[in-house]
Fold this protein.
Amino acid sequence: MRGTLHLLPVGLGEADASLWLPAAAREQMAKLDCFIVENAKTARAWLKQIGTSHALPDITMNVISRKTDERTLMQWLEPLTQGVDIGVMSEAGCPAVADPGARVVACAHRIGAVVRPWTGPSSLLLGLMASGLDGQRFVFHGYAPIKPAERASRLRQWEQQSARQQQTQILIETPYRNVAMWQALIDTLRDDTRLCVARSLTTPQEWVRTLTVAQWRQKPPPELDRHPTVFLFQTA
Amino acid sequence: MRGTLHLLPVGLGEADASLWLPAAAREQMAKLDCFIVENAKTARAWLKQIGTSHALPDITMNVISRKTDERTLMQWLEPLTQGVDIGVMSEAGCPAVADPGARVVACAHRIGAVVRPWTGPSSLLLGLMASGLDGQRFVFHGYAPIKPAERASRLRQWEQQSARQQQTQILIETPYRNVAMWQALIDTLRDDTRLCVARSLTTPQEWVRTLTVAQWRQKPPPELDRHPTVFLFQTA
């Protein structure tokens, strides 16, 4: 009997867990004593907070980075073949979406383990819901290029793609570059393209607004500096 | 003071709400007495189940379809301008993703209402997490064409896009056509493309498997008939 790889959500910021964590996911976390995580310190603090049923020093906590090689991942997943369940937790939100957790999941499939995704907060999905933009067809690009000329050209390319495929475009930026990204969007996109800014989702600083680019230009810039933000846009 | 438009999740199938519903979202649902929903009957049954604090006949339940015009939507949102909160619920999962709810949200932004997305189950996101495919860049296409030749050509086009942009491709199908879609994927995609089948997520019938197309061809077809399924693939 193979163990199960549980993909467990963590919060997106300072927000009470009752806002975003289903009770059964919390119970599942509290039961496990073997994890693969992005940051051991925050993972231990979180397990302590939800009330793990194990002594913290007895919990195995393997820390994954982009550099962790496949052989190491396979060793960490070895307990699955003996029927031990393992939890995967990201630094924020749902594991294996925009983080190195996907490689852990891929290895688990190779050894035929059961993979169980638990419901939790995803800034991409919450942003899409709250944007009012088309949720029938959408694309997540990750990060845009940093160099201004390259970035503008890529944004124009994505805008054309939005028009051609009637598709919502989703991107993120490193929080300290949010203001520059907002400016680039405002300077580059067409007047009638709808742009959504979804800031600090699930937290008390949550703020979501969708306006046309022309409308955004007439307003003072939103406060985005160092707040996790998702940008979404769709052509008229 | 404007009211808030609450985007509230419902379940993906027969699954206990503790598995997928945060407690605060449940409390928010129970408080509201004005809704915009895809199906009034299932919405009323659900409110009854979670224990609404209102008498069912006192709850306003406006039913949206793809044909609902914008003037009607604006009338339904009128209470927001008087400070009344409104809930939006889909037939399954998160509202405004792959359903008509996005138009309600767009109207709410036009009148400057606060839009609040609540964490809940999305088969697209849960499928992506559990697939082990790249979550750093992905696209959701909705449905593929139904006619076999057109469908095969589109799948090949998406496969090329996956290779070119290192992007996970996500699609859904009407449940009674799942078996045909699985066959089309197996017949059309390259041997080494990884294909994930994510069935009946969050329910007791949940089943997720990622294999290369060559590996899938050597197995008996999975049981997908009439089970909600998400298909995901990525080239090697």
